[in-house]
Amino acid sequence: MEPTVCPWCQSEIVWDEEIGPEDTCPHCANELKGYRTLNIALEDEDAEDDGEEYEEAYEPSDEEAGDLHRIWGSDHESLSSLRTVDKYGEDHDLFAFEETVEGILDQQEEVPECLHCREYMLHAGTQRVSGEGFQPVHAPLIQAPILQPPYDLNVYVCPGCFHVQYNLAENDRLRMIKSFIHKKE
Q: CA torsion sign, 146 to 149 to 151 to 157?
């Protein structure tokens, strides 16, 4: 049987001749027959309106809409509606904004995805948690707090919807791992 390449993970799949091809990739578990591409015709900004009709906006089929609902959790909320930055486009040069965002992202070591709109997030800084207002949870298994102040949080801001997310700074991640290992021994 001829090998197949998964369109999602680009892995070569060699099927068992007795079983034959399946519907999902054995490497990434994505649907092989559900791979779809969108072709979007963009209007040339420099061209004058010469009466040409442009293609209608892409409308997903019922099956695709169901897939989107399963993936994003809502078929009423599109990604474009999550991008708060777009409402500032009339007053500001969003192209320059996007170029700057891309430049900053290229220099970051970690680039998390926004949980809200799936844009890549910008590392805005670090916040120290000194312990004031923080009540650590004592885990019975390790007989100690899970996270002991002071510790640092990386602060990320989304350039699309401006949501803010935090994650534990590198040194404190290692400190947490070491404390779990030493308490367990």
A: positive
